[in-house]
Amino acid sequence: MADPADTAEPTGADTADALRHDRQLCFAVYAASRALTGLYRELLAEVGLTYPQYLVLLVLWERGTLSVKELGAALRLDSGTLSPLLRRMEEAGLVRRRREAADDRVVLVSATPEGTALRARVRGVPGRVLAATGMTAAEAAELRTALDRLTGSAGAATAALRARRTAGGPEPAGADR
Prior knowledge:
By secondary structure, this protein is mainly alpha-helical. Helix content is 62%, strand content 7%. Helix 2 crosses helix 7.
């Protein structure tokens, strides 16, 4: 993988075009994410779920009881974000949290019968989302693959840059201090 700090910068007239917000990969992904999340928000409001609650339930329906740490890893959320979400879901009767008997530092999360019952009510959401996007199932699968690759590559590049910075290596050209 190429070192992101070593990537050539555009020069001259290319610089102005390269720095347009609508030419940025990050902006395209951000705008698509906001649009898709908004669509889910509207569809899930019909059953009284928020988008983050839906994601938690999807993982629990798929994998069963998990520790908060495992759930956070699956959703790429830290415990500071996940804990208040789980507390609200527990208050709503969707999940149950309990301490693991062998190690009371570990909190286990499982869907309640009410949370499990929602699965039938949201079964049509993925199809409705796909229809709303105008994409075929094959196009959506291809996009997911590309986004998974993007996520992995960007995460690895971020880790490499962070390691370089914390080791006292050179900062990328033009980095603000």
